[in-house]
Prior knowledge:
GO terms for molecular function: 3'-5' DNA helicase activity; ATP binding; DNA binding; hydrolase activity. Residues 10-294 form the UvrD-like helicase ATP-binding domain. The chain contains 32 helices and 16 strands. It is α/β, with parallel strands linked by helices and 723 residues long. Strands 9, 10, 11, 12, 13, 14, 15 and 16 form an 8-stranded mixed β-sheet that branches.
Amino acid sequence: LAARAAPYLAGLNPEQQEAVEATEGPLLVLAGAGTGKTRVLTTRIAHILASGRAYPSQILAVTFTNKAAREMKERIARLIGEGMAEGMPWLGTFHAIGVRILRRHAELVDLRSDFTILDTDDQIRLLKQIIQAANIDEKRWPARQLAAAIDGWKNRGLAPDKVPDGEAYAAANGKGRELYAEYQARLKTLNAADFGDLLTECLRLFRERPDVLAEYQKRFRYMLVDEYQDTNVAQYLWLRLLAQGKESRNICCVGDDDQSIYGWRGAEVDNILRFERDFPGAKVIRLERNYRSTGHILAAASGLIAHNEGRLGKTLFTETAELGEKVAVNSAWDSSEEARAIGDDIERLQRQGHALNDMAILVRASFQMREFEDRFVTLGLNYRVIGGPRFFERLEIRDALAYLRATVNPADDLAFERIVNTPKRGLGPATLQLLHGHARRRNMPLMAAAAELVGTEELKPKLRQALSALLRSFERWSALIPHTPHTDLAEMVLEESGYTEMWQLDRSAEAPGRLENLKELVNTMGEYESLPGFLEHVSLVMDSEGGEASDAVSIMTLHSAKGLEFDTVYLPGWEEGLFPHQRALDENGRAGLEEERRLAYVGLTRARRRAAIWFVSNRRVHGLWQSTVPSRFLDDLPEADVEISEPASYGGYGTAMPYGMSRFDTMAPFGSTYATPGWQRAQANRDTADPRKRTGRQALTIEGELVAKSVIGGEARFAAGER
Ligand code: ATP
Ligand code: MG
């Protein structure tokens, strides 16, 4: 009763309060976005602590990101005051908690407590050695491919001997299982674990040592899991083992099947369905009141997700009398106009007194960020990129820039050093050391030193060959600078160096995104006059990235926006192929489409007061301008909840345009949008657009930007001056 009066319970609705107070026994909170699931979890922890049911160290709480863990810690501290001298709960991601447990029992899984955690690069390097040692052609069976397979197995909690035959044979020339086992053995000798091990080794520990498992079952009297819909099999097994101890079936999972967006990484939404089976007598509480978004936003999101078939089904309502603003649907000519318009809108809100911290741009693919970063640098608008490096800081972009820098400036040692052995050419640390020695002695740049060394006997013939081939390439590329459009040159450099191919062969989950980023890099170069001009721009952008500004717009992918909320959310790039993403459709068909739609639902439901969707008529794909088709998800939005704007800088234009149905279709789509299903329009657009497609890039370098853009629709007379 003392707890009932507790201030932290004030303001919760009856269902939320029930979920907070049902501390004993298994509980599933299944509820839509913004209904207070995370708030319930946090309050529940406060309640357990404040009512003396457990010490902090007896509580295990799993969040999806480290950021969420930090926020939850702060909130708990605020809820129960600073009186928690006994420390904090075990609160973190599955990985963070896994590593903590493993370090305490390292010797039981053949590690020392100071084991290192390998990053992806280390992992690949190690796998390469293993593949080569097994006499398997690494070209045909790339290490990255094996790494991806092993990650997949680990996500499913599969030790080497449990990998299904078919899958084991399909990897590493039939030796998938052996090499996986060998890899695990090598990790032990190195006293190392990879990311997946943080969970699977924990699983092994629990299975092999019931006494250790029992200790944790006893310790964790209360377990809480946020974003339960995105747990993978290994995580699920891990939770189940921990929760099945007699004394500790106090497990509370909160989730939303409509927000399951990590299927491609092994998450299984079925875990939700299994919950009641695994924990008989489990209580299920549904929360239906949304506290986050105003009426139109919520209705738009609900209308959208209703188009999915595989759903558990939930209702959502909001009690705010306020319907608020409708979801804005805007179109722009191309992605730079989209960035310009969104930038203008942000500045408008800022002038009205809105904080940048309350605004976010949520993109489907990370390559989309570049345009916004560029624009914001120009505007002097503070921004931060969440959940990943900024565009020009990405690994593949830095590599590509290094190639270009070394092409423009053969004395750029840092650039040369970065890529001399990327992709692998056998020019490892030993060779580099030789080069450095020679360069120092002769007081010359590395490349010049290399040119001298290849004429001597100091290097083994094989290395000499590899190095001189690389030098010859750089010479050729440099010589082409004055004669070749720089975007063509950049493509050539990335192709001929084998850099693009390196990622094409890569089977890891990030590889397709990296290739997209590389294409975006070439795209963006087209906006600059020359290669040196572009490189200068990049160094300026990089330099402007000072310390963390206190007030800044967030830019992030839809995937990393899960669980977050902002007053204003911009959702650019709602075009077929980008969103829904073509890859998801190609690889997973209907299921892929539904996961994409859930992602759209996640995006819309991040918004408290304002949501603005954008699509463009033209996007550069693979370096070619293509007219695009508005996303079919736009058709899913209830008409009453959206406000469709005329294309800003082309007002009037769309309707007056006498030619080019494809342009008409994408510029002023809404006459036809509601009449024609998205896929039909896509088809129509493809049919009419294709024969007239040309590359904007060529036109750009010949006639200048505006002309180039207009050539996209294929109509030259549509050109200059009309804007
Ligand atoms: P998501 O599915 O997006 O993770 P969620 O269900 O976890 O959402 P929360 O983030 O916990 O939802 O809550 C959404 C917003 O609603 C937060 O700003 C939260 O503070 C607020 N909220 C939740 N419950 C209440 C309540 N009873 N009274 C007032 N505000 C509330
Ligand atoms: Mg949440």
